[in-house]
TrEMBL record:
The keyword DNA-binding does not apply. The chain crosses the membrane at residues 21-44, 64-95, 143-160, 166-183, 246-269, 281-302. This is Multidrug resistance ABC transporter ATP-binding/permease protein BmrA. It comes from Listeria fleischmannii subsp. fleischmannii. The lineage of its organism: Bacteria, Bacillati, Bacillota, Bacilli, Bacillales. It is an enzyme of class 3 (hydrolase). Its main location: membrane. The gene is bmrA_1. It is found in: Cell membrane. One of its GO terms (molecular function) is ATP hydrolysis activity. It is a multi-pass membrane protein. It comes from the Bacteria.
């Protein structure tokens, strides 16, 4: 079962790196170059041996010096080329995987984002892909070269002097036996370290992103303490890692020193006895030095392989999610068409029904207000209209067209959705105004839209006007200013249907009245759905839909509902009181 799972993971890894992202010829050339450079490095000590032996025998061979230098130079150049090519392949690979992942993430349905922490996306995009790059461009070539180096060295050594090689045969397995379990421990630690680092980076973005909440609730101390605990965990993992490294490194040096001393003593005796040349002894010592990196690279390779397996699995979890197909379906113009929601039912979790069999209609030129208590399901209705979620039952029609046959691209491009929160991106006012627009606009158009949204004077007062930076989520603007910018953005869009989710809630009464007037004037042939608490907005609507616990309990004009709908009447009464109180306070 486990081996099946393993081979499944490796298959996935194979398919991740083989999707035309790694050019096979390029990879083969890179590996070939690095193999040649390894083989050359195996020959260098042999030359050294011949040279020294010739030198000692007073047979100074200048040709040999020349060849030796040539070989050195060839090895340096080849390994440089191989290193660059392997890195290039790794970079191309990581670029392709990140690109694929980014595209996938942006096309995932909203539901996926509801259930996933944003830090996790960062971790997948940066850390996991980085691990794969390191494996492909560093560790994998190292291991290939390591194997060649190991087999080549031992073969050459056996030919040079079998007895001396026995020392290596005893010492190397001992070294591997000591280092391998420590390597395993190191792997467990680094896995924990990885998880803690990912959690901590996601925490940083969360706390810094909500720094106002932290400060307003004077939670600095709590967050300092929480952060300290997380950092302490990181420290502890690091400390354990440092301890194991502190054993591995000196131990390796100790064993290698042991081998060297063994070779020097035994070799010295043999040189004295005349059964071994000094050249052979020196070549042996060089080979032993050359053997060290491959042995340590095996240990890191296997732990890296496990990490990459986990990373591949996590990347595939995202890649396997089904994404939204924006272009599937017909393209239908909403112009002059009615929109009907028929018997919509919806639940976020398949258990609690949030929208329960609701139907309504909107005509061009109409403003329809959704009113009702908090949590009644008003924003969810907007999400269904935007097709962020699919209703569990029911359907929405535009004219005679069912939404099921209209492409998401065509559908969503005909809606302009103005939300109350998270309205702006960091960037300039201009960038925010034109975000998502598919048609060209001039500065004049921008100022006109700002004027209609009652935002022109405050933008004109800013030193950089349209090019003023708004800060993260528009933090440098007031709530009302942000709302007016997003309303101006809606005015610029050519959308046929406007969704305003408490979009004017932060405006003062006068500004709101002005914006209302612009809305009604500009949207003459368009349909506007609003979620509103303000009595003024509600009264201006052609139709009011009262939503309570996911059901529509009344539809009609303000006067009709006041007369016929008890809950609406009492709801409005409290709104009146609220508005009066607010105005008195102001
Ligand atoms: N993304 C979500 N995942 C799960 N449940 C959700 C989600 N969004 C909203 N809900 C739940 O659905 C119900 C309706 O929420 P919704 O935001 O539609 O209400 P609302 O009428 O717009 O409220 P308000 O006036 O307070 O904004 C609530 O019980 C809420 O907890």
């Amino acid at each position: 079962m486990k081996s099946q799972e393993n081979s499944y993971s490796w298959k996935k890894f194979g398919s991740l790196i083989s999707q035309k992202t790694v050019s096979k010829p390029l990879f083969s050339v890179a590996i070939l170059l690095s193999v040649i450079s390894t083989i050359v490095s195996l020959v260098v000590p042999l030359f050294a041996k011949n040279f020294i032996d010739g030198f000692m025998g007073k047979n100074f061979n200048t040709n040999l010096v020349f060849y030796l230098l040539l070989l050195f130079a060839a090895q340096v150049v080849l390994s440089g080329f191989a290193l660059y090519l392997l890195n290039l392949i790794g970079l191309k690979l990581v670029f392709a995987i990140r690109n694929r992942l980014w595209k996938k993430i942006l096309y995932l349905p909203i539901r996926y984002f509801d259930n996933t922490n944003s830090g996790e996306f960062v971790s997948r995009m940066i850390n996991d892909t980085g691990l794969i790059k390191t494996l492909v461009s560093d560790q994998f070539p190292q291991v290939i070269n390591g194997i060649i180096s190991l087999v080549g060295t031992i073969t050459i050594l056996l030919f040079m002097d079998a007895k001396l090689t026995v020392i290596l045969f005893i010492a190397i397995p001992v070294l591997i036996l000591i280092v391998a379990p420590l390597g395993k421990k190191l792997f467990v630690i680094s896995k924990g370290l990885q998880a803690e680092t990912a959690a901590f980076s996601s925490k940083i973005s969360q706390v810094v992103g909500n720094v106002r909440l932290v400060k307003a609730t004077t939670s600095e101390n709590v967050e300092v303490e929480n952060g300290r605990n997380d950092l302490m965990k990181l420290f502890q993992f690091g400390n354990r890692e440092a301890k194991i490294n502190a054993i591995i490194s000196p131990l390796t040096v100790f064993v290698v020193m042991g081998i060297l001393i063994g070779i020097i003593i035994y070799g010295g005796v043999r040189v004295n006895a005349g059964t071994l040349t000094i050249g052979t002894l020196i070549a042996f010592l060089i080979y032993v030095f050359q053997l060290l990196p491959p042995i340590t690279s095996f240990v890191t390779f296997f732990s890296q392989l496990q990490k990459v397996k986990g990373a591949t699995q996590r990347i595939y979890e995202i890649l396997n999610e089904s994404s939204e197909n924006l272009s599937h379906g017909d393209s239908v113009s909403f112009s002059d068409k009615h929109i009907y929601a028929k018997n919509l039912t919806f639940s976020y979790d398949d258990e609690n029904t949030v929208i329960d069999d609701i139907s309504f209609e909107g005509k061009p030129g109409e403003m329809i207000a959704f009113v009702g208590p908090s949590g009644a399901g008003k924003s969810t209705i907007f999400s269904l209209l935007e097709r962020f979620y699919h209703p569990t039952d029911g359907n929405i029609f535009v004219g005679e067209h069912s939404m099921k046959h209209i492409s998401l691209e065509s559908w969503r491009s005909q809606f302009s959705y103005v939300l109350q929160d998270n309205l702006l991106l960091s960037g300039t006012i201009r960038e925010n105004l034109i975000y998502g627009l598919k048609h060209e606009v001039t500065d004049e158009d921008l100022w006109q839209a700002l004027k209609l949204a009652y935002a022109d004077s405050f933008v004109a007062d800013l030193p950089e006007q349209l090019d003023a930076e708004v800060g993260e989520h528009g933090v440098k603007l007031s709530g009302g200013q942000k709302q007016r910018i997003t309303i101006a953005r809606a005015f610029l869009s050519k959308a046929q249907i406007l969704l305003l989710d408490e979009a004017t809630a932060s405006l003062d009464v006068r500004t709101e009245q002005y914006v209302q007037k612009s809305l009604l004037q500009l949207m003459k042939h368009k349909t506007i759905f609003v979620i509103a608490h303000r009595i003024d907005t509600i009264k201006h609507s052609n139709k009011i839909i009262f939503v309570d616990k996911g059901r529509i309990t009344g539809q009609g004009t303000h006067d009709e509902l006041i007369r016929t709908h008890e809950l609406y009447a009492s709801f409005i009464q409290t709104q009146f009181i609220d508005d009066d109180v607010n105005e008195e306070r102001a």
